[in-house]
Amino acid sequence: MSAASTAPATATAAPGRRPYGFTELPSLMGLMTGDEKHGPAATSTLDVLWVLYDRVLRVGPETADAPDRDRFLLSKGHGPMAYYAVLAAKGFLPVEVLPSFGGYDSPLGHHPDRLLLPGVEIASGSLGHGLPLAVGTALGLRAQGLTEPSVWVLVGDAEFDEGSNHEALAYAGAAGLDRLHTVVIDNSSATHGWSGGIAARFATEGWSTATVDGRDHEALHAAFTAPHPGRPHAVVARVEPKNA
């Protein structure tokens, strides 16, 4: 596409692409260059994203628009490189598009755009929006009688400096949105803290909670799949501090 084009490109996954494993994700991320990579924000999410897309989420390139698919919302949209790498590894978009990251006519912006990438549920980047949107998504599915799809939202610990998240988690607990799951990446970025830790903030509002090592795939999977009847579920994934 030339610089004079009036419409951005849209990534379209091609069938028959070879599968990629977790160990290849750093190489896929390495294909994306530029000054606005937000590397620490991206790498902090890599293990969580992989476990979700590889072992938990009921969605793939062929079911990205299916009504009964699971929904994944990336609220922590300031570092989407890991997200793009996982989507490419799972066939949602061609690996060949990764080097275009941040380009003028690239579908891979510095924040994800749901209109340009298959499988992306929301455009994100403004912190504090993802959890409220996930609550609305879960409510919408409930209103439609769709009881099977799960809604997952990945947020950063610093997003809890925004009051919108506290309102959303309080409402979700009171409403018993048991198809809603929140994963909090805790890399010590938050300005404020809570007595007992981040999970305690959710538990106070009636959520089921777990706090695990955010690099331990088996611990993440066990926490993601833990039963939580009648309650939304929050997993705090602790990783190394951002500025370590």
TrEMBL record:
SUPFAM superfamilies: Thiamin diphosphate-binding fold (THDP-binding). Pfam families: Transketolase_N (PF00456). This is Transketolase. Residues 38-226 form the Transketolase N-terminal domain. Gene3D superfamilies: 3.40.50.970. InterPro entries: THDP-binding, Transketolase_N. It comes from the Bacteria.
